[in-house]
Amino acid sequence: MIRTTYSNKVHNFAHEPGSNCSVSSWSGIMRNQGFRYDQIDVFGIGCGFAFNYSAIASQKQFNMPITSDNIAIDFLTNIGIGGETITLRNNSEALNQIINCIDRGFPVAVKINPLYSSNLYTRTDSRHRRYLSQHWIVVIGYDLNKHELYFFDSAKLSITKMSIEDFKEGRNSGSFNQNPQNYFLSIQFPDEVLNRNISYYLSLKKVVHRFLYVEKYTNLSIYTGSYGYQKAIRHIAIWNKMLSEKKLSETLAALKITLTVSGMARGAYRFNFSEYLNRCASELNSDALILIAGQFRLSGSLWQEFIEFLDKVAENPLNDSHWGANSNLVKKLRELYELELKAIQDLESILSKLSVSELMKA
Fold first, then answer.
1. What is the pLDDT of residue 2?
2. pTM for this structure?
3. Which of 3, 9, 62, 278 has its CA 20 to 30 A from that of 259?
């Protein structure tokens, strides 16, 4: 087939900047398709709330991702949209998929190596860029004559451009955490989605299950929910015994970047989850959920304190008073664990009292 179109652009895409690249990207995609889901909805329905502890002891690598990396899939599943995830080795073939979507009038949310996002790259200290993980953007146009692609990056309001060669490289390069391997979601959008109350209910059930009943993701050294918290509390108390001074400083820097998403996120996204729970309380007609929302507002404030204390620890990482089972660092993390564990247990109890059949009738 001979190509007759060498440039094209989706002109009706309305981008709204946000602190979470997946949430910002997919709320824009849904809005473009005529579905009204703002960023709080995408975060909540996508089960964005999480606590994970990444521990690769053999490599002395430790971190605490505080949101799910599966928001897009969970969001689509919980609103009743199916799709296929595709990864391709051939960079040109992967690019053609995106161009074909744009030619049909569809913007495309894709992951790239974060080092190819000027937004993230310039905002992150050069010493710490290797700690950034895969990043979502929305591609809305191309010009093959200029060898350029046009896209929206989560925190930026204006359109960004990138050379096609850089884009192809950014889609399939870097370390394990940074290389998306040309990840692509193939979706057919329906005319209707699930009632919002069902989506809210499904998302909360999944959050509860992951936090209380899942210990570890298969084949990955990532421990989740309650179990992840317990492991993190035990480990962080002895990080100074396990790591050299240089490695300890690097670990603290990586943790700060992860918890704040390079300064973009507040309160480990707990304020977002609190707002989502308030929406669920209204939709599911459950005043009890308002109390849970209040617990996560408190959790967000405690996370802010924890992150601020990390800065003090980083100033003198070898100070013995920062470490040990009774240190302030461990006490703050344990307080967060106990608060969130109780809140999730209460959430499970509330959900058990809701009638699924009544929700389906609403």
1. 46
2. 0.93
3. 278
Distance, in Å, from the CA atom of 51 to the CA atom of 212, rounded to the nearest integer, reads 11
With tokens 């096609």, the residue in question is 164
H or E element in which residue 221 lies: none
Buried b / exposed e across 121-152, counting CB within 10 Å, b at 16+?
eeebeeeebbbbbbbbbbbbbbeeeeebbbbb
- Give residue for tokens 């209040």: 294
* Type of residue found at 204: L
- CA angle, corner 185, sides to 179 and 190, nearest 5? 160
| pLDDT for the residue numbered 219 | 64
**Of 18, 15, 69, 63, which is closest to residue 183 (Cα–Cα)?**
69
pLDDT tens, residue by residue, 306-354: 999 999 999 999 999 999 999 999 999 999 999 999 999 999 999 999 8
For 90, phi then psi, to 5°, come to -85, 110
Task: Indicate the domain borders of the chain.
Answer: 7-36+83-187, 196-361
Number of H helices, E strands in the chain: 14, 10
How many whole angstroms separate alpha carbon 273 and alpha carbon 224? Answer: 17
Which residues are CB-contacts of 255 (< 8 A; sequence separation ≥ 6)?
62, 63, 64, 310
Paired residues of 275 in beta bridges: none
What φ, ψ does residue 138 adopt, rounded to 5°?
-120, 115
